[in-house]
Amino acid sequence: MTEARPVEVRFGEDAGPSRTGISSRRDAYAAPNRLHLWVLLVLILSLISTFTVDTAAASLKFGAVPFSPGSTVRANVPMSPQEKSYAAQGGNPVPANAVAVLATPSNFDPTKSWPVLVICSTSDFKRQNRDDLADFYRRVGLSEGWVLLAGDGPQHAKNDNVAWRESMTMAAVDALHRSFPGSEKWPIACAGFSGGGKGVGYVAPFLARNHCHVIGIYITGANEDHLSDGYARLQPGTDFLNTPIYFSAGHEDRIATQEQQYAVVGMIKRTGFKRIRIGTFRGGHEVNDAQTSIALHWFRELAK
Q1: Confidence at residue 274, expressed as pLDDT on a 0 to 100 scale
Q2: Beta bridge partners of 102
Q3: C-alpha span between 199 and 230 (Å, rounded)
């Protein structure tokens, strides 16, 4: 007579095949259950991640004004005593605040470092810096991964001079630094077209003297050298002479001819600026998108 031996089954161990089929059915169900758990876990993690990103995006503020990445936001921002003193030069009434405009890429994350393009417009036709930001630089700047910034007064200045532009631009930069901790280390380039190409010759050294990390100056359609004078007056330091400068000149420009712009380049070289590049394009007195893209890419490459 054969002795019957009990089958010992331990939790967590395979008891082997069973004639009853109970063990095999259990194994058949186990794999789908584990799969369901993994799918559920992935969905939960995805929801948490989406909620975290949405919450972070919703919490973004510039000058106390909420905004979402990929948008352009306008904020009234305070002015320091120094900025107010600059604004008052030339008999200008000092406004209660400056107006700052910020444009950000769709993937903007303020915990990362971003290059900032500061805009300086011509004073002709009562244009403001924010006008040139929207009309000439925003589309290409955002596609190249830059943050764009402009500072102006609430109204047109009675005397739209260099000191006014410096004060309003600095107020916008200060608002950027207050809004995003660590942004005081973000690299800055300055861009100016026509009269703005002259004004940027003062704004860029002004920002450098006020502890901004200026990595480039982009000038389009300027027929006079104001950068040499700005460097001499503001004295940002000899390291500023290493700032990359990109000139963009249209072949058909009748306001700032190529001859005039090459002459400006020669003057700047004689001042001691070492990293100068000039690009030309088929067109007139205008900002060329392809040239803007080349300039911004060059600034970032040299800043690495």
Answers
A1: 95
A2: 73, 149
A3: 9
Q: Which two tokens stand for residue 18?
A: 């069973």
Average pLDDT score over residue span 246-271: 97
Token digits for 199? 């004004």
C-alpha span between 267 and 262 (Å, rounded): 9
* Tokens found for residue 157: 């200045």
Query: Would you list the DSSP string of 162-191?
Result: HHHHHHHHHHHHHHHHHHSTTGGGSEEEEE
Q: Nearest CA to 170 among 219, 234, 98?
A: 98
Cβ atoms of 193 and 121 within 8 Å: the answer is yes
CATH for 61-303 is: 3.40.50.1820
State whether the Cα torsion 157-160-163-164 is positive or negative.
positive
- Report the candidate in 232, 138, 153 with the shortest Cα–Cα distance to residue 191: 138
Rounded to an integer, the average pLDDT of 260-283 is 97
Residue 14 has pLDDT above 90, yes or no: no
pTM over 0.70: yes
204 neighbors 173 (Cβ within 8 angstroms): no
Q: How far from the centroid of its chain's Cα atoms is residue 232's Cα?
A: 28
Q: How far is CA 142 from CA 107, 127, 137, 139, 287, in A?
A: 10, 22, 8, 6, 16
- Exposed (0-12), middle (13-18) or buried (19+): which is 279, by Cβ within 10 Å? middle
Evaluate whether 192 touches 120 at the Cβ level (below 8 Å).
Answer: yes
- Between the alpha carbon of residue 60 and those of residues 155, 171, 243, the distances in Å are 27, 19, 32
Which pair of structure tokens corresponds to residue 201?
Answer: 């010759």
**Distances 137 to 165, 192, 269 between C-alpha atoms, Å:** 18, 10, 26
**Helix/strand/coil (H, E, C) string of 54-87?**
HHHHHCCEECCEECCCCCEEEEEECCCHHHHHHH
Task: Please determine, for residue 118, whether its predicted confidence score (pLDDT) is greater than 70.
Answer: yes
